[in-house]
């Protein structure tokens, strides 16, 4: 899928960053290619893709553009501070779809087969001998980025900016759409009994919205504008409300997505066009719907038009938080914004958000369940169909694998 002016379909979260060359390898074990591909097809009854090779760890490999295959995936050895997780719920992100369609995202290029997926939760299968806070059988949400813990960013607590970050399904790092993964125990967060594994997987996209709200200082004193009602726009809406924002207006080009935004608590919505020349009149409509100054605008699309709208709609002395990255480069009226002291903040992934997200879901302050619109099993047929459904957009918001 190409990036389009229609910003409803995909907001690619900022999952690209310089990373070191750490990867796993294909391992065929005792099953030959014919067996593996036969297992991957599944059946009309939704049988497991494991087939007769129950000992194999299978994963969804991105082989080339528009080509995914279920193949064996060899895990690294379990370290003393690691846990082995049986994956149970994995969501499809816009970045996954972009790799699937184009084999690249920004400067990150898939040069060899890569396991896809990073929004995930599962059950602890095995623990390293130094792990004390988890036990076999615990349900956990996995934070997908492993930082170096030694650089200046990590030491300052801003580990999301680590130059050596190893992030699931950001090439060349393999992802988590597999039967099992090995992951640092410190990045596995135990889920309470009232939080499902699907909700655990949703902590990943929700973390983006939570981090954005923290960066911009959203709270009871801030009226919020959200540009874009795709998955990231919707979780940002929910996060802003959970942080106490008394009024949230959501803007998009798709009326169906705006209906979802209203169902999730948006006070007002504005349906706009994709034409740059309509910015001025649309800003007036936004301001009328807000019925107050816009203190913070979250641009969850990252397009030239959405940023132009954000900068013009936000009050003098307010903040524009760039969350989406639809356009790598754009022409925007910075001088006029600077003259009004409108601050522009960048958002890159998230940091220290997972426990808060779990607490918000557990307490009922945020309900991510309505965002999961499509569910699939883990067979060759299901994996291909799920990615195609996600790529088409339409009614699909979050597509989830149940493994």
TrEMBL record:
Record flagged with keyword DNA damage: no
UniProt GO MF annotations: oxidoreductase activity, acting on the CH-OH group of donors, NAD or NADP as acceptor; zinc ion binding
Domain of life where this protein originates: Eukaryota
InterPro entries in the record: ADH-like_C, ADH-like_N, ADH_Zn_CS, ER, GroES-like_sf, NAD(P)-bd_dom_sf, SDH-like
Keywords: Metal-binding, NAD, Oxidoreductase, Zinc
Signal peptide annotation: none
Any single Pfam family the record assigns to this protein: ADH_N
Cofactors named for this entry: Zn(2+)
Domain annotation Enoyl reductase (ER): ranges: 65-401
Keyword Hydrolase part of the UniProt annotation: no
PROSITE patterns named in the record: ADH_ZINC (PS00059)
Family listed: Belongs to the zinc-containing alcohol dehydrogenase family.
Protein name in UniProt: Enoyl reductase (ER) domain-containing protein
Organism: Ceratopteris richardii (Triangle waterfern)
């Amino acid at each position: 899928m190409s990036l389009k002016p229609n910003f409803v379909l995909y907001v690619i979260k900022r999952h690209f960053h310089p990373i070191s060359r750490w990867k796993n390898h294909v391992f065929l074990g005792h099953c030959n290619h014919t067996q593996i591909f036969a297992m991957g097809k599944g059946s009309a009854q939704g049988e497991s893709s494991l087939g007769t090779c129950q000992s194999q760890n299978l994963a969804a490999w991105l082989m080339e553009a528009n080509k995914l295959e279920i193949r064996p995936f060899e895990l690294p050895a379990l370290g003393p501070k690691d846990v082995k997780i049986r994956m149970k719920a994995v969501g499809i992100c816009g970045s996954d779809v972009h790799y699937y369609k184009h084999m690249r995202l920004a400067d990150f290029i898939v040069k060899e087969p890569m396991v896809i997926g990073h929004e995930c939760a599962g059950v602890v299968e095995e623990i390293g001998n130094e792990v004390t806070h988890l036990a076999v059988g615990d349900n956990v949400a996995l934070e997908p980025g492993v930082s170096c813990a030694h650089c200046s960013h990590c030491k300052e607590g801003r580990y999301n900016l680590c130059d050596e970050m190893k992030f699931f399904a950001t090439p060349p790092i393999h992802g988590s759409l597999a039967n099992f993964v090995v992951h640092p125990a410190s990045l596995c967060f135990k889920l309470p009994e009232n939080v499902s594994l699907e909700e655990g997987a949703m902590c990943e996209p929700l973390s983006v919205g939570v981090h954005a709200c923290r960066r911009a200082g959203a709270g009871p004193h801030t009226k919020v504008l959200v540009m874009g009602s795709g998955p990231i726009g919707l979780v940002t809406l929910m996060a802003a409300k959970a942080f106490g924002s008394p009024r949230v207006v959501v803007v998009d080009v798709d009326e169906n997505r705006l209906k979802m935004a209203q169902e999730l608590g948006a006070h007002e919505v504005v349906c706009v066009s994709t034409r740059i020349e309509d910015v001025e009149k649309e800003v007036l409509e936004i301001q009328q719907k807000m019925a107050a100054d816009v203190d913070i605008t979250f641009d969850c699309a990252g397009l030239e038009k959405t940023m132009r709208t954000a900068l013009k709609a936000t009050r003098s002395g307010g903040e524009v938080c760039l969350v989406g990255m639809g356009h790598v480069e754009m022409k925007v009226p910075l001088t006029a914004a600077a003259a009004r002291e409108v601050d522009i903040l960048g958002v890159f992934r998230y940091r220290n958000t997972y426990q808060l997200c779990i607490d918000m879901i557990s307490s009922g302050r945020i309900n991510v369940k309505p965002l999961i619109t499509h569910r699939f099993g883990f067979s060759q047929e299901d994996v291909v169909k799920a990615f195609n459904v996600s790529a088409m957009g339409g009614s699909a918001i979050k597509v989830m694998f149940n493994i």
